[in-house]
Amino acid sequence: MATPRKDYKLDSDGDLLFKNGDWVIAESDQQHIEDTINADVGWWKEFPTDGVAVRNYSNSSNDIAKLSRKIKIELEKDGYKVDNPIISIDANGQLTINPNATRV
After folding, report:
1. Cys staple from 100: which of 35, 59, 83, 87, with CB 3.0 to 4.6 Å?
2. DSSP symbol at 86
């Protein structure tokens, strides 16, 4: 199993988390996966083609299949093993994504 990535920890609002006046550093694989799924292409200057841009997908089943494929492609580029992402939309339109991703 790969060593977990570490990065500055973010709070629930996406802001840097501080403890005792210093940045908190923690395992960041989950944060990295979420950032990749939310990011649009071009958000990161050093990796201009990375990002799923989940907000660009609608509720149609065709878009859900495209979203699943895009998640798999983008996370595998970043060194994750992705086993069939599970994507669901509830009656209120709430999108839930389980990428089923682990570091290789």
Report:
1. 83
2. E
On the question of pLDDT at 1 being above 80, the answer is no
pTM for the whole structure: 0.85
Residues 6+ apart with CB under 8 A from 59: 89, 93
Query: Residue 92's pLDDT is what?
Result: 84
Packing angle, helices 61-77 and 29-38, rounded to 10: 130
Phi, psi of 34 (to 5 degrees): -60, -45
Average pLDDT over residues 74-98: 91
β strands within the chain, DSSP E? 6-8, 18-19, 22-23, 25-27, 80-82, 86-89, 95-98, 101-103
Contact call for residues 77 and 89 (beta carbons, < 8 A): no
